[in-house]
Amino acid sequence: MKILVTGGAGYVGSHCVRTLCDDQHDVVVIDNLSTGHREAVDQRATLVVGELGEADWLEGVFTDHEVQAVMHFAASAEVGESVREPLPYYRNNIGNTLLLLETMHKHDIKNIVFSSTCATYGVPPSVPITEDMLQLPINPYGRTKLAIEWMLSDCAAAWGLAATALRYFNAAGASADGSIGEDHEPESHLIPRVLGVALGKYDGIKIFGVDYPTADGTCVRDYVHVEDLASVHKTAIETPRPGTLRCYNVGTGAGVSVKELIEAARIVTGHDIPASPSRRREGDPAQLYADPTRISTELGWKPKYTDITQTIETAWTWHQAHPNGFAS
Description:
alpha/beta
């Protein structure tokens, strides 16, 4: 299948591109490389650098490469930034997706897998989170992703689009061979920050909130390995359901606290990793973890990485070999 992957030079996108290439799909990546990395793109894929929001350029990509299906990762994705600067998020995430769907419709392409997020739920009333829970996002980032889900649902009803929205939780880890992994600037994700302490890049790690109603007082999150995310994206695009928006939570189904994660990183790295308590961040729910029953039942998907130590080991292999990310 000829698959267009938007944002395929990014963290999750690049792992999905590799998985698609391994499965003999013909992959075209479009990315403006503002946050993605040319070095992350599998050499078997075709990389076209440009702006998703430029209509004529996008039309040319679809025409030149005879696209049959789309995986859509390209988006602005920093929650805090979305609160400070909401309008660029609405323009980049919603506006560019609108143009992408218009171009797909023009070319009669009816298969898309969309990178959604558990942020569409906001603060859930209980855990684990199921797909039928009310979606009340609490920040512009989550609202843009939910709005895109609405667009996909309407397009599915109007012109038979086969759409899948994968609401995943905390993407983590790196490729098993250590060749591609996480490289953000600035880095806001917990595992790279913790491993950065072990590498000597930071003096210590701050724990934002130690008085939550959890077993050890720290936030609990569901860390899903990036290669598991890649496998479910491949499964979803290979099993389209015309005229339907399918929505799935993608997680391990188990939560890991901040303190548990830091302790696992200490074991993996052999480093003390000093950690100090700090005040809670506004809007951080105490617990977020998935109920993956629906995706397991309907797509037959189950994560291979269910132990946070294994996930951190793959990330540690990547960061040790690439202490400065792809610039290494």
